[in-house]
Write a structure and sequence with these properties.
By secondary structure, the protein is mostly helical. It has two domains: 24-87, Helix Hairpins (Orthogonal Bundle), CATH 1.10.287; 98-203, 3-Layer(bab) Sandwich (minor pseudopilin epsh fold). The chain has helices at 25-52, 64-87, 98-108, 111-124, 170-173, 177-186, 190-203, and strands at residues 128-134, 139-145, 156-163. A hairpin with a 4-residue loop joins strand 1 and strand 2 (139-145). The structure holds fe (ii) ion (FE2).
Length: 204
């Protein structure tokens, strides 16, 4: 038996997400209430099972403990990425300003060049497209994740998160993924991304 854990609670849903142009209420509620809250519940379930899981038979081919540990990072990364995604939605789109815009122009040449790369990353990804500030190379980069915990680059701090799992758009857009990404960009809250970026830079 190991020490206890803190129970994870879901963040509240920003009501502005229910009236976003290009998104139905049902699409957002299925995503938030079912998918996101499901990951929160799984984190708690896994952590509870880990308290008393048998560690003596841990094995890298298969073991109960391995199953829990693999599920643990998948579920917690699922929670974190969804919270970042919901948090950076509900805005009015447009373009970032200030420090973040200057950094995008410095690293990509222009906002349009960044946007083209970010959209392509989203189209090519099976899970997530994320704009991160990679501290090791002092650079903004668009990274592709095929699952919550597959494609994560450690030490890279998140600025903007786009969910491209089919569950994020299939109710509203079917297979029209590019139209969903366009709708996402029209509802980005750049204030949130700018605050994240400033926070990262202050840590350097
Ligand atoms: Fe999702």
């Amino acid at each position: 038996m190991i020490k206890g854990y803190n129970i994870l609670h879901p963040i509240p849903l920003n009501p502005r997400l229910l009236i976003m142009p290009g998104f139905t209420e049902r699409q957002i509620l299925e995503h938030y209430e079912v998918l996101y809250k499901g990951y929160v519940n799984k984190v708690n379930e896994i952590r509870n099972l880990l308290l008393s899981a048998d560690r003596k038979d841990a094995n890298a081919t298969y073991s109960y403990f391995r199953g829990l540990k693999k599920g643990e990072t998948y579920a917690i990364d699922g929670v974190i990425l969804h919270e970042l995604y919901f948090e950076n939605l509900g805005g009015t789109g447009g373009m970032p300003r200030g420090e973040l815009m200057r950094q995008i122009e410095w690293d990509f040449g222009s906002y349009d060049a960044w946007l083209e790369d970010f959209k392509a990353t989203g189209m090519a990804a099976r899970g997530w497209a994320i704009l991160v500030y990679d501290i090791r190379c002092d650079k903004l980069v668009n990274y592709l994740l095929d699952a919550h915990n597959y494609g994560v680059v450690h030490g890279a701090e998140v600025v903007l998160v786009l969910d491209v799992y089919e569950h994020a758009y299939f109710i509203d857009y079917g297979t029209r993924k590019a139209d969903y990404i366009r709708a996402f960009m029209n509802n980005v809250d750049w204030n949130v991304a700018e605050i994240r970026f400033k926070r990262i830079k202050n840590l350097l």
